[in-house]
Amino acid sequence: MPLRLAITGPHRVEVLEYEDRPLRTGEVLVRTELATGKHGTTQAMFDDINFRGQHFDVNLHLFTAAAPGADRPRPSRESPWDTGNAGAGTVIAVGPGVTRWRAGDRVFGPMDIRETNICREDRLWALDGLDPELAVCFEAAYVPFHCVRESNVRFGDSVAVVGLGALGLLAVRMARLSGAELVVALDPLPNRREWAERNGADVALDPREGDVALRIRELTGGRGADVAIETSGAYAALNTAIRCARVGGTVCSAGFYQGEAHSLWLGREWHHNRLTVIVPHGCGWGHQPRDYPAWDSRRAEDTIVSLMRQGKLTAPGLLQPIVPIHKGPDVWRLIEEDPGQVIKYAVRF
After folding, report:
1. Which end of the chain is more exposed for a tag (fewer CB within 10 A), N or C?
2. Domains of the chain (ranges plus CATH)?
3. Are 139 and 85 in contact (CB under 8 A)?
4. What is the DSSP track for 290-313?
5. Residue-wise pLDDT tens digits, 99-125
6. pTM higher than 0.85 for the full model?
7. pLDDT value of position 39
């Protein structure tokens, strides 16, 4: 039987066997070659603090008290959660009505980390010579793409990116592509700072060493960053982003913060510097980009793929480590115990 990397409980990841169901109309079966996941968001969901005792009404866009005992089901071996969100592979079967693909086509798109994936035909793109290690980063690029667009990063701006996981590193790359005059990357992990400096950052700072907001003032003639993008999901990092932004600047808050806020001093720079704070499209669900209908999700995805094909959006070495599936649980232990060893993990089949 085929294998999958699955979440079977809070902070527990295992390799499980599974069976594919029959293909439905408009679906294809892909033999996976490479797949990856977004581990930061998944880690936050392990404890599900934000949803504990709460229900998010997708029509009202509001959290309300949940009925007693109505908390979201937790993962188990009987009802596991997926670990993946993007993959590449070869079509091996097509369902009724499929016209876009045939067996033998190499494709990429939203996929789980498993040996075979059932995919909607309209949610796949042809590899067409694109390196699979770059192609599977298309989903990770979606949030930073909207961070840069919706923060209105303009030619000549100064940009600070706080938190250098895969999303933050891709935000560094995109800020540079957008014409930022200065890009400053902040993270305590040296391998991530090094990647940022190789791929668009002018300066990479360790927030544990000195006052990084003061250092950014020095780099910008005393002003501060025009745009500060926070992607780590740590409240202290959001406070750092607030401190890094100039008077009247923009703070893009893209982290998935957990629990009640702490380490935020909203009576300081937040209050005195008249900041604009946004949460970009791609965070949460149930909404379109700010410039919809000119831009919708599909146009954004197609644009990311196009930039990759043109060689403009690159991410060399972002997938780190790449392991066989039986090593997947070991990688998850590293993510929680030694995160400096992992940037964005992937599984090669």
Report:
1. N
2. 3-137+318-348 (3.90.180.10), 144-278 (3.40.50.720)
3. yes
4. TTTTTS-HHHHHHHHHHHHHTTSS
5. 999 999 999 999 999 999 999 999 999
6. yes
7. 81
